[in-house]
Amino acid sequence: MDNRSLASLSDRLFGQILDSIVAIVGFLIAGTLAAKRLLNTAVIDATTGQPCTYGKAFIRNLLLAVLGLIDWVFIFGEKRQRLGDKAANTIVIKTQPATY
Q1: Which residues pair with 91 in a beta bridge?
Q2: Contact 82, 64 (CB under 8 A)
Q3: In terms of C-beta density within 10 A (0-12 exposed, 13-18 middle, 19 or more buried), how is residue 84 classed?
Q4: Nearest partner of 55 among 23, 25, 95, judged by Cα
Q5: Looking only at Cα atoms, what is the longest distance across the chain?
Q6: What crossing angle do the helices spanning 54-67 and 9-38 adopt, rounded to 10°?
Q7: Out of 5, 12, 45, 55, which residue is the most buried by the measure of CB atoms under 10 Å away?
């Protein structure tokens, strides 16, 4: 195999960045769902009260991944919404404990 068959360095770098974003978002969504259940909380649409959609979860967690701790500071506001919640129009509510 000669070097002409290999993807360019820029293609590999861009591909690696995309792979990392997909992996991080997946872990954030999975981790958030498990942590929310343990804390008896749920993320819902602030307007309709319906469960948070995957699209809204993506927006919430993308801003968390990009802004990090800056995003967290906003939970001290009136509705306890981080910037990701505001962008996705979501709120976190308390739920009933699961019974087994």
Answers
A1: 44
A2: yes
A3: buried
A4: 25
A5: 61
A6: 110
A7: 45
Domain spans of the chain, in order of start: 10-94
pLDDT tens-place string over residues 35-81: 777 778 889 999 999 999 989 988 988 888 888 888 888 888 888 89
Neighbours of 17 (CB within 10 A): 10
Q: What whole-number distance in Å separates Cα of residue 57 and Cα of residue 33? A: 10
DSSP state of 85: H
For residue 63, what are its two tokens? 């801003």
- Cα–Cα distances in Å, from 83 out to 27, 72, 73? 19, 8, 9
**What are the C-alpha distances in Å from 66 to residues 35, 43, 51, 53, 62?**
20, 20, 24, 20, 6
**Residues 56, 89: contact at Cβ < 8 Å?**
yes
Rounded CA gap, 84 and 30, in Å?
Answer: 16
